[in-house]
Amino acid sequence: MNGATDLTTVLAGDHRELDRLCTELELGQGSPENRKDLADHLIAELVRHAVAEEPYLDGEGELAEADRLMRQLEGAGPQETRFERLLGGLIRAIRRHVRDEGPAAVAEIRRRCSPRRRAELGKEVLEIRDAAATVPHPDLADRVRQADQLWPGPGFVDRARAALRGPASG
C-alpha cells in the first residue's frame, strides 16, 4: 500500500494547498485580473477537495458556506467591490474548514476505513481528478468545445463538480 495514495494523505495535501492559495490571495498582490485567476484556481481546488471529502462531512459546515460564496464569486468581476468581500468570506470559510472540519473528516475516515480501503479510496480520488478534465459535462458536450468546458465563469462550480463526479447515472 502506498501512503501517498491514502485518502487521508490526499485530503491533508489538499488542506495544505488550499491554505497556501489563501495565503497568496491574502497578500493582495497582483492585478485584479490576476487575483480573479487565482481565485478561480482556489475555487477549482476547493471543488476537487469537497467532492472527495463531502461523503465524510455533514452538509452544514464551512464547505456549505464556501459553496454559497463560490457561486457568488463566479459571477463577480475582479473590479467589482463585492469581489474582495466575497473572496475574503471564502478564504475565512476555507480556513475554518482546514482548521476545524478537515481534521475531523480525516479522523472519521481513519475510524471508518481500513488502511487498504483508504489506499483504494485515495487512488480513486486521484484517478477521478486526473480524468475530470476529459469528461464532458452532459449539458455542454454537444455545444461547447471540450477544452472550454471547465473554463471559469458562470456555472464553473457546477461544471467542475459534475466533471469530478463523472457522468450521471440513470
Question: What this model shows, in words?
Answer:
The protein is 67% helix and 0% strand. The chain has helices at residues 7-26, 32-53, 62-73, 81-112, 115-132, 156-165. With 170 residues, it is an all-alpha fold. The longest helix has 32 residues, at 81-112.
Short description:
The protein is an all-alpha fold and 170 residues long.
Sequence of secondary-structure elements: HHHHHH
The tally of helices reads 6
Structural class of the helix and strand makeup?
mainly alpha
**Rounded to an integer, what's the Rg over CA atoms?**
16 Å
Q: Which geometry do the CA atoms define?
A: elongated
Mean pLDDT: 78
Low-confidence stretches: 134-154
Strand content: under 5%
Q: Distance between termini?
A: 34 Å
Helix-residue proportion: 55-70%
Major beta-sheet overview: none
Strand segment tally: 0
Which properties best describe this structure?
170 residues; 0% strand; elongated
Draw up the topology in text.
Layout: H1 7-26, H2 32-53, H3 62-73, H4 81-112, H5 115-132, H6 156-165
Helix pairs in contact: 1-2, 1-4, 1-5, 2-6, 3-4, 5-6
